[in-house]
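Ticket #4471: structure output looks truncated?

Reporter: J.K.
Steps to reproduce: submitted the chain below (123 residues) through the standard prediction queue, then opened the result file.
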Amino acid sequence: MVHELLFTFTEYELFNLLMKTAINKISITTDMWKSSQKIQYMVLTAHFVDLDWKLQKRVLSFVDVPHPHTRLIVYDALYKCLQKWGIKGKVSTITVDNAIYNDLAVKILQDSLSFHKSFPLKG
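Returned output as attached by the reporter:
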């Protein structure tokens, strides 16, 4: 399977292997902007500490997010990315810019991820 992301095939395979076996928590940052062609973009970046205790970051998604930016549209883009990469249960923090729809989207995402999470000993 070939992806249009900023990964080489080897990096993609290694990232997936790390996420499945060795990395327990990741942080996500996201930013949105409008191109000169008036296309609305969002980039999602994963940040994690690797097995050698080095901070790593990888662009997971660079997508067109249709206007208007509502909490549900932004939530949907975030959720689909986390689901696609199989990292929904590993997210420890999400950093967004100060747009109100981002705060609302992250709140929905937090509720959604908490619902899907299974805690050891029901804790």
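Triage note (M.O.): checked the attachment and the full token line is present. Residues 100-116 form the longest helix (17 residues).
Status: closed, working as intended.
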